[in-house]
Amino acid sequence: MATRPSQEAKSRREYDTAEPLARRLDIDVDDDHEHGHEHRLRDSILADPRPTLVVWHHGTMAHLVRGFPIRNAGDVPHAWPDDRFDLIWILAREADDEEYEFSSAAQSLLDGDAEAGA
Fold this sequence. Notes:
Radius of gyration: 14 Å
Structural class: alpha+beta
Oligomer: single chain
Order of helices and strands: HHHEE
Distance between the termini: 23 Å
Shape: globular
């Protein structure tokens, strides 16, 4: 799932980030939700038990994530760090569990990323 470009948020960066993986997996990128409609995106994810990759506008990622039932909600940062482009925020749960567990992982793909903390 990726942020749909709109009049207010015209960037296609999120879609362009998700598209190569979707192409490789032979699936379509779901861009049914625009920036500012995080509650609709969250409802869509909660209604579907499949694993989901979300590439979203970083300015509202914390708001999006905090809306999920998270066991360790205190670990969710209050905002996405503006200077980080290599983070993956992960929400994981067992199929029969109501709550997610939050974690963060650094991709460490770029020069200097290995030294930067998550």
